[in-house]
Write a structure and sequence with these properties.
- The chain has one domain (3-134).
- The protein has one helix spanning 7-18, and strands at residues 3-5, 28-33, 57-59, 69-72, 77-79, 88-95, 105-116, 123-125, 131-134.
- By secondary structure, it is mainly beta.
- Strands 1-7-6-2-3 form a five-stranded antiparallel β-sheet. Strands 4-9 form a two-stranded antiparallel ribbon.
- 9% of the residues lie in helices and 34% in strands.
- It contains one helix and nine strands, in the order E-H-E-E-E-E-E-E-E-E.
Length: 135
């Protein structure tokens, strides 16, 4: 699913491209959301799943390729199993923190299909299902 850089994420990309600021490699995590995120949102303002059994998932990305350049997740991401009935997942976000409300919101996606899990269920994002591009 294609997504969109947040204002913060786009700024970091432009800093790296322009050489204005050096960017260092960092871990990034995918978060499941129950409402959309805006360009100006922060991790603290996300409406994230909080059901027991949920945790943000560390994600690895392919080297960008093509025109426009695209990078996709290189491994499947599994959330859960949830120990209770989670809310309907409609959006996803790329963040720089494994948990909590500090860190950076970098990218956001709208789910191709909303997913309403159930207790003892897991939600899996397939290899290559998330893509990021800058054009």
């Amino acid at each position: 699913m294609p997504g969109e850089a947040t204002t913060f994420g786009a700024g970091k990309a432009l800093d790296a491209i322009s050489g204005r600021a050096t960017q260092t490699a960092r871990n990034t995590y995918v978060a499941l959301l129950t409402a959309s995120a805006t360009d100006a949102d922060t991790i603290a303002s996300l409406v994230e799943v909080t059901t027991a059994g949920y945790a943000r998932q560390l994600v690895a990305w392919s080297a960008p390729s093509g025109d426009p350049a695209v990078s996709s997740n290189t491994g499947a991401l599994t959330f859960g199993p949830f120990t209770a009935d989670p809310p309907n997942v409609t959006h996803l976000a790329l963040v720089s923190a494994a948990s909590g409300t500090t860190g950076d919101l970098l990218y956001r996606w709208t789910a191709d299909t909303a997913r309403d899990g159930i207790a003892n269920d897991s939600i899996t994002i397939a290899i290559g299902a998330l893509s990021m591009s800058l054009d």
